[in-house]
Design goal:
With 169 residues, this protein is α+β, with helices and mostly antiparallel strands. It contains 4 helices and 7 strands, in the order βααβββαβαββ. Strands 1-2-3-4-5-7-6 form a 7-stranded mixed beta sheet, sandwiched between helices. Helix 1 packs across helix 2 (39-52). The longest helix is centred in the middle third of the chain and has 15 residues, at 102-116.
């Protein structure tokens, strides 16, 4: 398994990212889509990600050969008063690849890139009381609180989101 950073021209990864995307949603992952998401919506989402990639929007994947095991995105704030911070977005790990340290490796890579970019603060949100939420405190993120009824799960239930932050040295 290795990690690579994708560029806007790396769209040949779209099928593998699509498979990962559907696996996470089928497993109940909160990615902003409902369980009836279709191929067109998935492609539109990944096309918009690839279109945005550049200095302030970055994407890494963990892969084995041509298979995407996981992915994470870093979105650097472009506002003059927020250029020191970035948002961690869409950390995903395929259900068959979980418990192998892939999420930790993705987050470690993202944090190193953030430090190299001179960032000092990372923020993120995740579904409250989800399996994913257990990861962030182990990586040094601080839970600020939660917002009830924030997003609809893939199955259509309103769920809370938990807010986290981490100060980078």
């Amino acid at each position: 398994m290795d990690l690579i950073e994708l560029r806007g021209t790396d769209r040949d990864w779209m099928p593998a990212l699509g498979e990962l995307f559907f696996d996470v949603i089928d497993g109940g992952g909160s990615l902003g889509f409902l369980e009836d998401v279709d191929e067109g919506q998935m492609r539109e989402y990944w096309e918009s990600v690839f279109d945005a990639l550049g200095p302030s929007q970055r994407l890494w994947i963990a892969r084995e050969g041509e298979t995407a095991l996981g992915t994470v995105q870093l979105s650097i704030c472009g506002k003059p008063n927020g250029r020191h911070r970035a948002e961690v977005q869409k950390l995903m790990v395929h259900r068959e690849a979980r418990r192998r340290g892939i999420a930790v490796q993705l987050m470690t890579t993202l944090e190193q890139a953030a430090r190299e970019a001179g960032l000092t603060l990372l923020v993120l949100d995740t579904e409250a009381q989800s399996d994913a939420e257990a990861l962030y405190p182990s990586l040094g993120f601080q839970r600020t609180g939660e917002i009830p009824f924030f997003a609809t799960s893939p199955q259509g239930e309103l769920r809370a989101t938990a807010l986290y932050w981490k100060r980078l040295d």
